[in-house]
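The pair is set out directly below:
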Amino acid sequence: MFNPKKLLKALPAFLLITASGTASYAQSAKKPEDNRFTKVVLAQGVQEPMQFQIMKDGRVIYAERKGKIKLYTPATNKITVIGDFAVSTKYVNKKGEVSEGEDGMQGIILDPDYDTNHWIYIYYAPVGDVAKNTLERYTWLGKEILLNTKKTILDVPTQREECCHVGGGMLFDKDKNLYLSTGDNTFSRASDGFTPLDERPGMSPEDSQKSSGNTNDLRGKILRIHPQADGSYTIPAGNLFAPGTPKTKPEIYTMGNRNPWRLTIDSKTGWLYWGEVGPDGSQDNMEKRGPQSYDEFNQAKKPGNYGWPYFVGDNKAYRKYDFATKQSGDFFNAAHPENHSPNNTGNIELPPATPAFIWYAKGVSKEFPLMETGGNSAVGGPIFRKEDFKNAKRPFPDYYEGKWLITDWVRGWINVVDIDDDGNYKSMERFLPELHLRGPIDMKFGPEGDLYVLEYGNGYFNNNPEAELIRIEYNGGNRKPQVQASASKTAGATPLKVDLSSAGTKDFDDDDILSYQWTITKGGKPFKTTKEENPSLTFTSPGVYKATLTVTDLKGAKNSTSVTVKAGNEPPVVAVTLTKGNSSFFFPGNTVAYKVSVTDKEDGSLANKRISPSLVSVSANYLSEGYNMTAIAQKQQGVDATAKYAAGIALIAKSDCRACHAVNKKVLGPSFIEVAKKYKNDASAVANLGKKIKNGGSGTWGHAEMPAHPALTNNELGSIVRYILSTATPQKVQKTMPVSGSYVTTVPKGDNDNGSFIFRAAYTDKGTPSAAAISGENILVLRGPVLDVSQASAASDMNFNRDSTIAVVKKAGAYFKFAQTDLTDIKNIELKLSKRSSGTDAPGTIELHSGAPDGKLLGSFSGSFIGLDNVKVPVTTPQGKDDLYLVFTGTPARVAGIKFSNQ
């Protein structure tokens, strides 16, 4: 049947579908709705991808760090290897210790005239005794790269005693000049998170003055050359140092770079942009060393010196520091920087330092708050110019004209930077807030106007399963319907009556008429088709049925989704109830009595003893953060001892921890198991390690610097640390509790005492001859009795402060609602007040009602609130579970907390 749909305003949804829209409507400078963008996954499981290029026909060529060059072909959706190079990825220090580094295959790019000359350029660290990174050119005719056509364009001498910072991005400008970024090739983790200026004999791998600050070295630079047909190159006019300038390299376009990433050129202005990865320090030390770490996004309107290793961010200066004597000297001068290092082979006097365009540290940035907090790794991105996509199918709208899209490898957002006509920063906003990338390492627009992103994944030097190549398409025309499908029952005994529903289906365009079609299959074979919007069906024979809802709009755009129904076995019904104690709150040290019931249509029940208690899993766990972080624990089948660490696991998954740590192996930092073993018997480990995660630091596990995480609360830090410490002991399935009994709600030592106890019971039935087994479970949550005002189920006529920690009564009749709350054993409801030092001293009244704001009166308080820290509303008529209302009928109060008390 047909159903007219009106225009729906944009919702903050991100459509994970896989096809683009049709013809575009006229574009305007108005910000497009997020639902006009579609994420398309092109390739998954790519292995340590680095840089990519999109060809005119939509094929994507990309480099993997371990040496392979691969080609993704959209027509076949296949990935093929077109080149495999022997690359160096290891470092061997003076002690003979071998470690993994960042070197390897770093970059690939096609010649601007590839269609006629078929040249491809690669930048990598070749194996061998000669420490270098090399830029080579080959002929590629579309299959395998022809290795016998090699032309060595440029060698960049390096050191391979210590990691890191390779750079490696490449870019051609409109004049066919090739830009190549190179890192400072310096081990910085021995510098306490500050700048590496170690001038002691033999320590040049830890002195960035040999490279970034050296006018006569190709490292820590962005180079600009003009390749020639014979494999040589010329120097374009206008580089930083003219050819023949003593003690300089004419290839240098910018210097003072630490690890420049992902170059882009504004096709209209010709200005160069890139991301710049900073050091690791989380705290300033201006007395001894200088500023903390800042990552940067930079702009070069002309050649220049970008400050490293003497300056960072907006030219924040470091101090001269003697690593031998530990003595500090003066701050470096950005107007007149000088390089006096014995490892410098270039000029002493350097060009003035250019400040960063955007800069941000581990903590909150006052200048650029959208950058978020925690670990960081700036990755550049493209500037959109519509003129570059004249005949494209899906160019981004005019709203993005001239704006720079940037990303961060650790933080995973995309931000849009607005730049004025003079090249000055104007503003910044989030692009698709629902989208979170996993290790974005390269990002650029394709020939059809789509935004491509290459994701490395969440851990260094790993073949991360989440690594993928994606495309984000813009649909400026008619959008597909957003389809939702559900079933009243997804499993049950036959005959099984199921109501199918299309509720939630939306269409975002004006005056669309939607048609619905449900196609039900069994074992892949047709079973039934109906054009009803919300049909009811009865399944009389056992089996697995798939109900697919296809919705089509008036212009023919369609979209589908499915729901699965299993007929032939009724799911077990499991319940956990308390026979003694309050069923809403726990009180530390009190004893509650519980009982589990299980009923299964085919198996019987616990009550009639056809189901054995030994087959029912029963557990209780304490979560110090409360119940909101327990989604993982809820979904676990069986009783898993790690359920109590669900909050910590979830926090680690959404933070930057996995970039530097793994459970059982060293990455940049120690494994969780190593940390757990080291602090196994340390009673202060939770507090001390939590503090270190929050503030950052280094030294305990070598030179690696832990970034600060100032946004994490103490409870969240505790959850993370407790999970890490738990990894020292292999987690076993914990012994199930009896199906009935008593339990003492004892809060673990050192934990927040206002979390939640989670009682869980689960049973998996035996299945039937024609249907598989089904599991059922039930969870009972006893939360802490102290609530923030924001935790009330609802509030009426209340004004909340900015962070919702205080509620101010606006007028008589205002109330808090607490849905289905148990008053068993509750003697008082205590309200913590934010003191009023003055005001009308008229008596205030607070009443407790059940069922409705004017329902049965269960208790009340009357009196003045002036000067009070708290008031108690005695519960004079206690009863069981109901909706409760705290109603304010007198003088306004400022409420900061609510406690249900059994005292």
Notes: The longest strand covers residues 145-157. Residues 1-28, 628-642 have pLDDT under 50 and may be disordered.
